[in-house]
Predict the structure.
Amino acid sequence: MYPSRFKYESPTSVEAAIALLDAGKGDAKILAGGQSLVPMLKLRFAFPDQIVDINNIAGLNYHRFDADGSLHIGALCRHEDLEFSAEITKRQPTIAAAAPLVADPIVRARGTFVGSVCHADPQGDWAATMIALGGHLVVQGPKGKRTIEMKDFVLGPYANSLNYNEIAIEAVIPAPQGVARGGYLKLERRVGDFATASVAVSLDMSGDTVLRAGIALAGVGGKTIDANAEASGLVGQKLTEANIDKVAAAVAAKAEPRTDHRGSSDYKRQIIKTFVKRILIAQASQKAA
Amino acid sequence: MSSLYEEIAPTPSDGTPVRRITVNVNGTDRTLDVEPRLLLADLLRQGLDLTGTHKGCDTSNCGACTVLVGGRPAKSCTMLAVQADGKEVQTVEGLATPSELHPIQEGFKQEHGLQCGFCTPGMMMAAKALLERNPDPTEDEIRWALSGNLCRCTGYQNIVKSVIWAAKKMRAESN
């Protein structure tokens, strides 16, 4: 298997990359980690006229917490960089839990966080994580920068709201109110397989009271499932058994799983419910910070 | 060498520009003209005759084609050759010296870490990436680090033992 022919450029600035995308009029594609794009090129699901490789643009490979507590992830930050980051482990539990579960270790060494979010795979771990965390993307086009809230970003399977001449240059996770808690659980038949079902949970807590709650699901619908409205039932509450049960049931009802070789729709819904409960119970049993 | 896929595809190049790249492969700079769509695995195997890098699945699943690019593991079937321009690529051929096996190769020999040997180059390169980052991994960490590499013969038991053996040897050598 080899890709169809394309023109290839590796610009060294965001502006030059945008100019190439603009000239491509929708037939140009950005190559970052390439761990989804290259397989799609080889299967000829994707056959762009122009590949714009952004790997030679300096200054996009970072993740950092700003003084206000917000987390910024650059377009070339690899999954592995987050997996091995002591700061992420300490300060952002949802991302810390999801990072080792993305694809497999070799893919994690090349694939990028922002690229995965943009790929908008309904099974994608990072799109779900970003929705649960209430994140947004900073995107740049010919007319400058704009912000896209994550809840408005994923339009459908493999479809996002970027214009053809825009690049997502940074993912931003806002500072938590209080302490950031949360987790990520994923059921997969083997490492690197598409998920049977995944759950991302983010909680901002003060003592044992929930100030903000976000939940999103992957693998159980035609696109990433936003269950933040269901999760908001926890706001102002404590993580009691009754509250947890209520939210887990509501979130499971929001899932749109389909029966396939990975399990029946009922089974997947049950997994979602169990995962939501497991993550929330684990947070409830942690000592208040 | 010009656009490598011409040997595979019957249609001649339609004017898609060929790129001149220089890749440092196992310590030697190699300058080649390649079609942008050429995969790194095909550059190594067909362009440079380094057939130790195996193509198992060609769908980014099996990890047999794993090489190190700039010290990090990469599935060479899932990377364009042009992306290796200016980079250092290590393949399984770069592990041994003319007189000595690399400790990882020795480990696979000592602990019988292979049967058919098809996955072995990828296993060893993934193990090398792990041991460079973590010289004293637990068994669990080894299994985790090799979870992107498939072996259909061994049940992984002896592969894990081989990496433990190699880690011990490498630690002893660096002391």
Summary: Chain A has three domains: 7-52, 63-173, 179-284. The domain at 179-284 of chain A is CATH 3.30.390.50 (Enolase-like; domain 1). Chain A has a mean pLDDT of 96. The longest strand of chain A covers residues 197-206.
